[in-house]
Amino acid sequence: MAVVTFTTDFGTQDAYAGAMKGVVLSLAPDAVLVDITHQVPRQDVAAGALALAHAAPLFPPGSIHVAVVDPGVGAERADLVVEAAGHVFVGPDNGVLAMAAPPPRQAFRIDNPRFRREPVSPTFHGRDVFAVTAGRMARGAAPREAGPALPAIVEIGAATDGPLASECAGTVVHVDRFGNLVTSLVGGRTDGSWQLRCAGRRFVATGGRTYADVEVGALLVYEGSGGRIEIAVRDGSAAALTGAGAGSRLELSRRP
User: Fold this and answer.
1) Closest Cα partner for 136 from 157, 169, 102, 108?
2) What is the distance, to the nearest Å, from the Cα of residue 140 to the centroid of all Cα atoms in its chain?
3) 84-95: per-residue pLDDT in tens?
4) Could you tell me the pTM of the whole model?
């Protein structure tokens, strides 16, 4: 039984995600369908890439991952199926697959008519190309059957600025639904008291392991489940308190 996952910015208000699932099940009725998320911020390719990279390695080997965050749909960019890290990834060649499908990888352009519905809507490749390809993969087709091999794909990576240090600077790469600021800092000791500078303001934060290490309403510096340094407010929103968002620069320094 093949596992097929979905990562999109479609939301759940409309029928787009359901239409993709219907196409997959029409080709592979026994497939196990799993939503990673349909709440990627609209047209935010980097956020989609980060979500997929965070979740995909936790699925069984051979899983098929469909990612559609595609502001350039219908334009001159390839439709891809990629083999990497023991998984198969399907989506547009705009960087959304690259973080989850690291080298060494094999990439193929989806050109074979068997891997596309007819007619293909110029605005819904998720249904007419990527879902069909995922369904074919779930039935046992090999990625190379989709079309010609490609020497490279569009790369995108979440910024990394090294580990947390006594004096360091980074970037907010993502704001989750709780308002936690996921930063470009990876690893390092979080204990102690910190000064945080961002969005033109200064704050005092406490380092810890988890939210209960600080009082309600206090800022916390901690290592998140994805290995990145995060800024949170216990029972609140760090984004709302600080005014920071994705792309904001921040500085952290240890206080005596």
Assistant:
1) 108
2) 26
3) 999 999 999 999
4) 0.87
